[in-house]
Queue: 4 jobs
Job 1
Amino acid sequence: MSTQASDSTAAGPAAFQPETRTGRIADYVDQRVGGTNMVREFGRKIFPDHWTFMFGEVALYSFVILIISGIFLTFWFDPSMATVEYEGKYAPMNGMEMSAAYASSLDLSFDVRGGLFMRQIHHWAALVFVMAMSVHMLRVFFTGAFRKPRELNWVVGCALLLLGLGAGFTGYSLPDEVLSGNGLRIIDGILKALPVVGTYMSFFLFGGEFPGEAVIPRLYVLHILIIPGIILALVVVHLFMVVLHKHTQYPGPGRTERNVVGYPVGPVYAAKAGGFFFIVFGILALIAGTFQINALWNYGPYDPSPVQAGAQPDWYIGPFEGVLRMMPGWIGDIPLEFVIPTPWGGNTVATPVLVPLIPVGILFAGMFVWPWIEAWISGDKRDHHILDRPRNAPARTAFGTATVTFYCILWGMGANDLIATHFDLSLNDITYWSRVLIFVGPVFAFIVTKRICLALQRKDRETVLHGHEAGVIEMKPHGEFTERHRRPDDYELYTLVAFESPEPSGPVPNAKGRITRLEKLRAGLNRWFYEDRVAPVSRQEYLEALEHDHHDGHDDGGLEAREQQQIGSGHH
Amino acid sequence: MKALSQKRRHPFAGVALLLLGLLMTGGLYAAATTINEAQASSEAQEYSASDIDEGEKLFAANCASCHGINAEGTEDAPSLIGVGAASVDFQVGTGRMPMQMQGPQAQRKPAQFNDEQTQQLAAYVASLGAGPSVPGEDLLDAEEGDATRGGELFRINCAMCHNAAAAGGALTEGKFAPSLHGVEEKHIYEAMLVGPQNMPVFNDANIPPEDKQDIIAFLKTYESQGTPGGFALGSLGPVSEGLFVWSGGLALLIGAMVWLTSRSS
């Protein structure tokens, strides 16, 4: 091919000569941007295939939809708290005085062509965005995908989740109606509850006494520029780290810690992922076109005096709302609030507002540091690319479920009034019981989940050693009834036996040969984590089971079983 | 018929049958309940002596066991002397009285008495002592009211319990503010006037008659405009939206994911 290697040093070993015009243009561009190498590298990247791996993709796509619909909304939305008279098409508001922000939100809903749809798709996409991130995070947690080397990417993900909450809350506050104003009033209340500095912080945020005239323009900058900018940057980091670490995979035949079994990006995944964007877009468009969200014309222009029944934040702020609703202000006749005497007259410490921040703070801080906590407890410093089935990490799964239960109780309490009306319950009773449940519920969830995991593991052992019940009852010549068992095939067998079940490791002495108090704590937690365990079936046990099978004449199943039977059939 | 019998083992046959059954039950129920609905009411401010007599008989037979034979009240129920015709018309007209059972709050149900009987009862109770009377038609005409002003008054005075979209809300100890959708103009007016159950009284000094009319105008305008954005999910705000996205939305997305990652077989 390269017979005419000339004196030109730039020419490669085989200078490609495109034949068509399109080819020449493509080649021209390629020589200057080097697209071929990128496609070659990235297009051959292997990704494993499982539906649970797609929640992150949903989050990414709904973020793209948020940006597209959000840009549309910025063309009409006026982030100003200046008073205007509404003159739009919505009759029950005609001639009312309101802020320009609310008036332009009403215009977007009733006077801008397609505006209501764009508002609704933007809001639904926001709910889906945070939901997809949350479910993605739960998937990563329960399968142990956050372990080394992916701890830092877990932290990036946690930051993305928090930024998602921030983006959602700032957006929720922009239309300046009574509902969003109530939300801001809570933020104002929380800030003012901070002793000494609280009132200053509130005045700084709102540019004076609440609500002031500065907060909507400020939130707008956060909502459309700063927060999405940081999200975008972190999404890039997140995806870059996924490519760098390679994707994790579930256990299965041929899957090891040193490979990835799946399909390459090009062409299958590129098409699937591209198509999936449009599926997500389609689902969101369907929902936005048929289901009303945030009917802001109901709430009326913001006025600090009214609070309407059913005033709630969007779902992802629900637990914050719930913890405030749950916290008692008085215990019996004793108020929880107290005053610190100071030379200038005393500072009120609004404990009923401050105490609820503690569990929520621990929840989110714990989320960030969990990979290191677990690694410290387990003492496991190895890389992990094969995922855990949740049942094979019973303590982690149980801990996760307990945390989810804790979250869900707070979340549900954010809607305690609607639970009361829709289930004919007393609002007071729900609140009292939730104060018990918040302590008992997670413990109960932990115990039950752990038992379920161990039971499922025993069931897996049973399946490996004895096979599946085939539903065929046989009668022996001497009258004994037995049920036939079918051996699991190789794929299933691999999934059922390929896991580790560490035993409690006990305290390890340090370099000086002493066991520190911290090490004792670690060993204690380690025992709590691993003392209840079901060991995977060993090769020896499996072979013995096959031997036993062979005598009973069971159905053949896995590879080993067939080999054994072939050998066995020689004897008969 | 043959085509139908061939498709009876189709995977969706069960679903189709279930849907058909649900539709038929729902349709029959809807038809049955509309037949039972109360007829439109007519007004009469002046009560005749015979109305009062008939009302007294009805009262003795249906109300006296709790409210006392002279409507003086007992341990179970309050005195009705001076509550006025408007109170009777509201409580009996919306089916709240006679009460089905003791509970945190009397529930709305199909009215037990027809309009004539309700009027007779109202006449009797009105004869016991002066109280608010049933509002005349001229105060109830929603066309006359100012919906914008009514909306503002509603959001300031009513939405705290009844929700901004008048969908209702919770009160303490199992009590609740009901949804106002489909409530007759007369009953809305009377409720403001007399403050039934746990509702405060909004008398004419507090909210003058023309303002009450504005509120009715707002509620009726709101009701007739429908929900511009599609299904309103109960108009309950972010909770029902969140519930929907975590159920329907998530199910649709997971369905698409499973479909995309399934192997062709």
Note: Confidence is low (pLDDT under 50) at residues 36-44 of chain B.
Job 2
Amino acid sequence: MAFDEDAVRRTAYLARLALPMDEVPAVANQLEKIMALVEELCAISTEGVLPMAHPLDLEQPLRPDQVSNHDERQRLMASAPATEHGLFLVPKVIE
Amino acid sequence: MDWEVVIGLEVHAQLNTATKIFCGCPTTFGAEPNSHTCPVCLAMPGALPVLNEAAVDKAIAFGLAIGAELNRHSVFARKNYFYPDLPKGYQISQYELPVVGKGRLTVQMADGSEKVIGVTRAHLEEDAGKSLHEAFVGQTGIDLNRAGTPLLEIVSEPDMRSSAEAVAYLKKLHALVRYLEICDGNMQEGSFRCDANVSLRRPGAPFGTRAEIKNLNSFRFLEKAIEYEILRQKDILESGGSIVQETRLYDANRDETRSMRNKEEANDYRYFPDPDLLPLVLAEARIEKVRQSLPELPDAKRERFMQAYQLSAYDAGVLTAGRDLADYYERVADGVEGKLAANWVMGDLLGALNKAGVEIQDCPVSAEKLRLLVQRIEDKTISGKIAKEIFEEIFHQGGEIDAIIDSRGLRQITDVAAIAAMVDEIIAANPQQVAGFRAGKDKLLGFFVGQVMKASQGKANPDQVNALLLERLQKPE
């Protein structure tokens, strides 16, 4: 499978990575090699094998529906760059 | 040539758990912004989600109620996208293996027909927070109290063929989650939200390209948005154009849908299994426990109402549309005639509630009081007409029925001698009409009944008045 420079730029955009333009060819080359490895894996027959969702052979523990957290807003918001009236502030996201 | 509309709905029902789906923060509505947050729902590094068992049980209850396959093994996946009210940069949802598989819902249409609508799947996921765009210049405020609230996303098959069917399905689903007590169903506050996929095709042809309409927070908006969308797509198709697959927003003020103009790459969610969560395994014992706790469901209740209270399918359908109304009706009908109780609940009571804009659970007249009123009609203490007046009074001002009957002298007159005296008086006072009646003008009987009822201030028993009048008028002098 081809992982060309367009695919690299698109993937970087989806992941919100600021990838310098001059690094794109090198990254494309590296990802291409990873894809080659995946191609190799695709050759293995997986018929009758269930997809693995998690490497541990365990099941999800459940939690009782009881409130265990209390208002720690001040402490939790202390590291936010901008807050006002108890809200996080971010650059405007709607035109 | 005609067009056929094809509709599928995606409904997000907020599950009414006490805490969020993956952390122990409370879910109560209307708290101070961000006061219901913790490292898990704020996406602090290293925080680990742990699944809430009540959310799982509520999903199981829904699955059982629609006769669905419950997947004994389901998987949580990350749905990746960026938006400030989604702090992790992904939403934990379920993708390839949802907890609830294929099921079905039978809806009743206004003409009495029934239609089965397929449910493709229902899966557990977390809600996002809220963005406040208006309050700050150049900035957006973020409140993450809602982030992590459990949602059950219920996806239907594209089985609906009219806006009326879509509304009937949504109403049925709404009633069902309220019966099951898994969601409060509050559409204004957003705890029951609906998106509609709408497309047109020539009958028998493959499905056309669909548009997804968002922001439908009432049954009426769903209907109007679909009607608008049908016209829009028909215009495009009939003028030789083609439909663009896109997300559209319904604007209730303008009664139109408009394109949300998503960036072309915005819909690549790159789902993958969430490594922070293990597969959800449903034990038979858990499923059985939920099954035991299921209440009587709308369809079963409707059948029972038809049998037990001798109601028509229509009446039983109206009375079981909501659990609160059904419970109220059963308390009224306890010990009185079912059909008479149904007429009062569906007629005077629902009419008054509608007019006052009050919900049944806040009804100022208790079911026990309404039952007493019906009993007073049945035991002939008052006439139906007087009962309506008393109902108006207790609905608006309150008061005790028997006290009102006594203090205002509303007791029905059933004493034959008293009624006969009034009948004689009216006959004596109207010789012309008497002559007319005897000459064959049968319709004049109504005039006499009206006069006697007026003379008795509505209190004479109408059956007795009728009988006595006929007896006197038909007797030759």
Note: Residues 5-42 of chain A form one domain.
Job 3
Amino acid sequence: MPIEFKTYEIPTYDEVMSRANRARNHAIPLLRTLREFDDEELETRQSAADMAIKEMGITFTVYTEGTAIDRAWPFDIVPRIIPKSEWDVVEAGLKQRVQALNLFIDDLYHGQKIITDGVFPREVLAKSKNFRPQCVGIDPPLGIWAHICGSDLVRDSDGTIYVLEDNLRVPSGVSYMLENRLITKRVFPELFNEYSPLPVDGYPSQLFDTLCDLAPKRKSSPEVAVLTPGIYNSAYFEHAYLAQQMGCELVEGRDLFVDKKDFVYMHTIAGPRRVDVIYRRIDDEFMDPEVFNKESILGVPGLMRAWKAGNVALANAPGAGVADDKVVYAFVPEIIRYYLDQEALIPNVQTYRCMFEEERRYVLEHLHELVVKPANESGGYGMLMGPSATKAERETFAKLIEQDPRNYIAQPMVGISTVPTVVGRNLEARHVDLRPFILSGSSIQVTAGGLTRVALRKGSLVVNSSQGGGSKDTWIVDTGVQ
Amino acid sequence: MLSRVAENLYWMSRYVERAENTARLISVNSNLLLDLPGGIAPGWAPLVDIMGVRGDFDSRFKETDERRVLMFLIADLNNAGSILSSLHYARENCRTVRDIMPREIWEELTELYLYARENINTGLTKRGRFAFLKRIIYGSELFIGMLASVQSRDEAYDFIRIGRNLERADMTTRIIDVRSDDLLPDDVSDLRPFDTIQWVSVLRSLSAYQMYRRHMQTRVRRDAVLRFLFKDKQFPRAVRHCLNMIEGCLEELKNNEQPLKRVRTLVRKVERRNVETLDQAALHGYIDDLQLNITSLHSTLAETYFPKSVQQQEVQ
């Protein structure tokens, strides 16, 4: 049987279908190709993709009861397609955002002019969990702190793209973006006759170049290493993948040591070898037991000494996470205006900051229609979903907000867009977000698209891999339509 | 290259080789048992001895019957030398060095491990066993072949080859040790026709039968088989060949003084000894000595190249 598009239900903005049986302009060739499939073929292609993922060993790791379990991360074969004309604006907006955030972080660890000028409140910084006093006064190479940033974007029901959050600590997912393209080429080759999506496979060399830009004393071929917490980390696949693609060593804390002169070395079969740049995928707290968590066995004692002495570059720089805070997020439009004298090209989701009386009053009066989030949690912990919460839950949150207003923000519910997704032998609308990756070295580069995560359960908005999420290939296509 | 990575590569390679050798042994033993008259058939116990897991086995099982031995050698995850464990450890070692291996290698090891895990019950049946074991052997050879065709001849490749050849040398001596222990009493002449079968099975365990015929130009006899399996320079599973390969790899590596000294001592022991003249007891003693030397070669490699324990690092 042919795939049925007449009954395709559209709960909110759909990236492909403007209404049932009717594709948006940029998606017409996609729909045409899908119409040539019958439902059995669709299922066969999806199984082929599942098989490819298993064989290619594309996994994320779940660690329970002392053993590491590899789970294949579900992949959906229908790509998410974004016209290049639209993407160009998003790309410029992301560059603008990351540039401003890096200026902001550098300012916080130096003169704190943005605070003296009254644009950013001192109390927000005072309560920041990710501000590292140990980093004050340090000048990282090129003045950049967040070299690798992953910003989460969503599209609202009116079609506008918003930034939902910025991940400036150790954002992951880029390896899946790269692998997804390989799988699509394997299982859906005919779609490439219709489109020429911008390639994504330049990322590992761009990342490598960015890291080399940071090397001390501009060595001609610096020794770069990827520092991983080890095989039990859920993103270990990615750490190994990136090291492999960049042709550099993947090291664990125990492979490294810092000598008395504050240089970093790795243990090799030919003796110690100097390391110049470390792409660390370990959180600040676990990086150096001399300075942070004393119990950490994942880190390298003395790493901060070496970094402060300028003998090794760390990406991202310790302390960069200070901008990875939901209250800071709410100030990003102001931050962009302050440092760059520009208006934000990609809007934030409307955010109410409970620390300001007026905004707090609005939040407390409208709890039933808002989402309330604590400043420093991720993965959906400690949130209130106003519309679905009980009266008692709303009252509890009202108290929490009054007790510690700085720790809470509130946002209206955003209608997250959908893309047709294979469900059995049919296509149904499933919600998606998008995480592009932004590299900052001597220049700023943005991935063409990024990682589209999809909530595979009907109606679900949760795209996390651990909670029934999957991913899609993301195509930026030049349709020639402006 | 990182010391930790060198160690992982070495063990990955040893475990793949071990899985293959175990599969070969079981496969050949199945055939041997079909060929020998019931009364003198050695059964399955010798396999437990070859793998050096007798103590472990006896503490858990009372009988060495076919079902228990096969379960133990193929599927038992508590037996670190079982096929499934070996493939599991090979893959875990590969997982931590994924960044430096060609991706096909990881994919093949994953596929092989998943195959073994999913088909383990078939592997335990008489009917499905042959195909199962064949796939394991084939998978191991595919692994070796892929490395040969896509891995640069760098330090990583050296450690992989050192691991493989050390495991192989060790296994060849084990097989000879247990299988040369005569099945047939010397004075029973009417069992002579079966004498050859025993030595043919030794050769077949090592896929050495054809090469033996071609190079030794003689019928299958104890003295010639021993000479071939210990001293042949060209057969890839002969002890001398394996040791020469290790020697060659070590010559390419830095800091090679101590391990080279060790392996050259071993090579001399193999070259100079007239194994064919040894009676069973003397042969057994000789093999014991070789195995101890192989173990200390491993220790020297570990001391020279692999990560030091925490205490050692502090001393350093």
Note: The interface with chain A takes residues 1-6, 92, 95-101, 103, 106-107, 110-111, 114, 155, 253-255, 305, 307-308, 313 of chain B (CB under 8 Å).
Job 4
Amino acid sequence: MGTVHARSLDPLPMHGRDLGVNHDDMEGMEPEQATKQEILENRNVVVQHVNIEGLGRTKEDYLGYEIADVFNAKNLIDVMKKSHDARMRLLRLGIFKEVEVLIDVSEGSDALPNGLDVTFEVTELKRLTGSYNTMVGNNEGSMVLGVKLPNALGRGEKVTFQFSYGTKETSYGLSFFKPQPGHFERNFTLNLYKVTGQFPWSSLKETDRGVSTELNFPLWMSMHTLKWEGVWRELGCLARSASFAVREESGHSLKSSLSHTMAIDTRNSAILPRRGALLRINQELAGYTGGDASFLKEDVELQLNRPFLFGSVLSASLWGGMLVPIGGKPSCIADRFYLGGPTSVRGFGMYSIGPQSEGDYLGGEAYWAGGLHLYTPLPFRPGRGGFGDLFRTHFFLNAGNLCNLNYGEGPRAHLQKLAECIRWSYGAGIVLRLGNIARLELNYCIPMGVQSGDRICDGVQFGAGIRFL
Amino acid sequence: MATPMELRCWGGDWDLPSVHFESLIVLAYGKFAGAKISAKPIDWTWRTITATVPELHFEGCTVLEPMKILNFLRKQRFNADYELTAKQGADTMAYIALLEENLRPAMLHTFWVDAENYANLTRPWFASHSPFPLNFFVPGRQASLALSRIMLTKAESPYCTITEVEGKIYSEAKECLNLLSHRLGTSQYFFGNTPTSLDAFVFGYIAPLYKAPLSSGQLQQHLKQLNNLCNFCDVVLKSFFTENPPVESPPVIQEPVDANLQKLTQLVNKESNLIEKMDDNLRSSPQHRPHRSDHRPAAQRSKNSTPA
Amino acid sequence: MMHRVEGNRSLGKAAVAPSNTAVYEKSVVLNSTLPAIQSCKCSDVAHVMSRYMVLYINVRVSLANVCLRKSLHMLSTAAEPWPENATLYQPLSEEQILLSDNASSLAVQTYLRMCNLPVRVSCRANAEFMSPSGKVPFIHVGNQVVSELGPIVQFTRAKGHSLSEGLDDVQRAEMKAYMELVNNMLLTAELYIQWCDDTTATEVSRPRYSSPYSWPLNHILAYQKQWEVRRKMNAVGWGGKSLEQVYEDVSQCCQALSQRLGTQLYFFNKQPTELDALVYGHIFTIITTQLTNNELAERVQNFSNLLSFCKRIDQTYFGKPDESSASSRHSKGPSL
């Protein structure tokens, strides 16, 4: 028996590193696999050795967990499948540039007749990788310098540093990532950052310098994140014409918060899913561990998708959130919720719903928003199977409300307040998927239920976002 | 004086004895007080980058900063403010503060930060007056010092840009020039017919602005509309800084002072002339007559300086 | 996308398009309206101005200065109503405010009382950051925000309230010169003593300045402020001064003020001006404030006419403890 190049025979799609390719386009291959299995499944084999070649700074014990399963293979198909799985697991660690699998009959004195040796030939990523970008916006430019140290200590630790030097401000971020050996999903991250954000809809400028630690772990079907964040926030007016309500919020504050996020995501794609559901619940408690800001914040996101007629997809989503200030101090403008814009309640200006003062939106302490979408492929399906598959047309109906609550009134009054003056809109447009992280939308919207003070965007609205209703 | 005082300063140009306004203050004061100061330009030496100008050397002492140099000169009995009353002394301080706060930022801006002036006038001048490798650094260093001073003293908040500050400092400076013009009125100098330290300061600040061939000079244009200030500059230049001074110059107008009045003035000065009070040595000792009045009988001087 | 405080706080946040050009647009509008105003008849002016006043919101003070001065002569007779809810903002008077800020705040309060313009004093921990110029105090009148005494004087003059109307040009020059003397010497000396004298900075200024903030932000902000002030001191040539020299400067400045005041009631005889408010604000605060030692107050107390001048203004304008501003002012003094 000669050397089997696992890669060439591998019946499964291999897209470990090309996350951009979507799973849902690969469905037709399964029957083919089944026929091969019949032929080969009876050959009993024993995996005697598993070697990893090409290791430099990576510690072997760290990889042991990832490849251990290969030893349990009982027949050739099993070996191939498990080798493939192990390869995927290795690639997922983000420390190898390339992993090839070689399956060969065992050689040497202790070789069994049906013994196999599996060899993983790995190429490690460089010790240090750098990137350089320039970004030009209107009236400003910035230079982004990134440095990444994959596998810094030999057990999958990753150190990344990003520095952006702009004409208006500089920001930086330093993060250290450490996975638990054998359980890549259980990991720990430490971040150190400074970011500056400008929020023209509130005439607000915010500079944050902070430290955060994050613990991620899977539990049954869900992903959990526990996080502590200590952040020094500096708020200022973006322009001298900022309203006095925003001016009053200016200054420094310290927020120390504990937060927990639970997410269950069964969708087949994050951006244009065909089926599956997403439930994300986030709660944040600030002030308990020190700092000036004290509040409890709850935020829920639910999205359901199911295939509909003629390749179209029906999608429904619901968001809701509430911020409860603790200790009698009013909430800070930077903590409150904002609603509106091309990726939430369409047809309204960016974050331009709800309480405002002299045209500066102040955000609200409670909100909800819901959306109903019908996604269809492009009419006549131009560019089918290629570029055209990145596009969808959609028809949508959005609704939502954002307001402040008076906590003396009780829950019934709150619900009533949120049910009054609902903003809603409907329309249609085109969605473009950008990789697997963001999407662009060009919509024609008709806003309804507009309240005084809201900024609307009647007609064509363009937007990009990573989170969308 | 056996050894003449030596002032390290930037050299002259544009019909001025020095192009540097702080040096000009000291030079003018020296002339007003009758001190023999030999200006020693630092041009084309390595001191262009190391020295703090103006710098006065006298018998082993080194004095920096115009204010301190003026005090030092007073201590050396070169006092141009001798005849001022206490209130006039107070006014001198106040107006000097006005110049510092309101005119100086705009002056620095006009010469060092305004791109057109800096590129066409200031940088070429200072570069051509510095020795070879330094000519690349001297102007830039001065310019960044000037900019940081303006930003630190006049920028309202850390986020202010220079363009936002410009409007403010120029309107302040124009107002300041107007006020000086009002204050001067039709008199020859700020306190009558004799120049004093205030005149030295005003001259030091406005003469470069008046004389320099600036390509972008909103402040200069404003100054040129104020005839009495321009006239003041011309008079000082003509009377004190011309090579062959006209006869009777400096024009010390020696009106016959009533002996009693003189004595009274002296008494008041001794009590309260705050400029003299700047150094403790003087407080306990009798006031020195300025050298400028040396021609007066020595007997009268000794009598005056020890009041009964 | 609705929280801005989201789990994965990425650098991408910086990419939000900025738009702080609005202020210029507003000032341009204002400038272009001026010729129109000037061509109106005088009787219409007040009406037109009140309409355009809306445009003045937070327009840069300097621009406002230029514009306001242009229209000043027309407005001098028509005094605009002063809104009831005019508010003066300053740092927390009990535990936070520092000598220099307190002096500036008192000067503005005194000036407004001299003009007979009522103002409510509001103490905010973030007053410094609320102020458009980063300096306290500032006043919020209608929808306009003006900070520091100089611009506030300009502002009230534009509204038809002025104390220096009766002065001639030379007197006005003199007044301005003495005001700059106070800023140049007294204010700088106060800042120097607060932040550059290590004992005062450690025992008084840093703890007070940072009192509203929690650890570790309090230390960060206090040192940041100290560093900022020291840089400024170096820029104006005060960095190399010794404490003794600074006290000597204060003495000199007070002597100049004392000489100028002489035996007059106010600096310009019978009528108080903004100079009187400024001098009172600083002198009164210095003599009523307890620092680590009494050196500063003692230097000032040598000038008896300045002391009686302060007493006189205190009695005339703060005699009746009727408003909140008076009570806050009295409580602040000895605590620093």
Note: Residues 22-78 of chain C form one domain.
